Recover the amino acids of this structure.
């Protein structure tokens, strides 16, 4: 099945949830409202003709100039059929939350944790939404476009001195920086 056919089937089933369908270089992007994202993903996964059994990627994006500042991007692939489609769901800056798709693809667990850690997007119903890349006590979300390039002003990572001490012996151990 061609990606545009999948987009059309999605439009038939979730007409009020589809915002826009675009195509660029043989890839189809379906912009959707976030309210029923888990249901849409479940449909794409369970329909035997579509069977999107592989969540290739889930990531966040930050567009500060947009009304829906953040976007969650789902890159879906069917190993059985060899087709793919990309869903994009916008979430607002005031309430950056969307339902988790971990019930559909368990591999979404780490991807959603990363998007939460880096952008502050909350995935409702996620089983364990702890930070995954940054230390638990880190303040802010480093991939937001308004995050300072040098980190938060006037603060330094609390473990910095311990790391410096840990690396004082690097030259003795022939570790090149």
């Amino acid at each position: 099945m061609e990606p545009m056919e999948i987009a059309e089937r999605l439009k038939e089933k979730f007409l009020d949830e589809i915002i826009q369908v675009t195509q660029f270089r043989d890839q189809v992007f379906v912009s959707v409202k976030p309210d029923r994202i888990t249901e849409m993903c479940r449909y794409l996964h369970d329909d035997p003709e579509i069977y999107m059994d592989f969540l290739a990627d889930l990531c966040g994006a930050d567009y500060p100039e947009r009304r829906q500042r953040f976007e969650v991007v789902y890159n879906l692939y069917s190993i059985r059929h060899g087709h793919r489609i990309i869903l994009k769901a916008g979430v607002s800056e005031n309430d950056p939350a969307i339902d988790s798709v971990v019930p559909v693809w368990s591999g979404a667990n780490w991807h959603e944790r990363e998007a939460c850690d880096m952008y502050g997007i909350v995935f409702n119903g996620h089983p364990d939404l702890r930070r995954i890349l940054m230390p638990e006590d880190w303040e802010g979300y480093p991939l937001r476009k308004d995050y300072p390039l040098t980190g938060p002003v006037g603060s330094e990572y609390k473990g910095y001195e311990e790391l410096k001490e840990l690396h004082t012996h690097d030259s003795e151990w022939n570790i090149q920086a």
Observations:
- The chain has one domain: 3-138.
- The two ends are 50 Å apart (CA to CA).
- The chain has a mean pLDDT of 91.
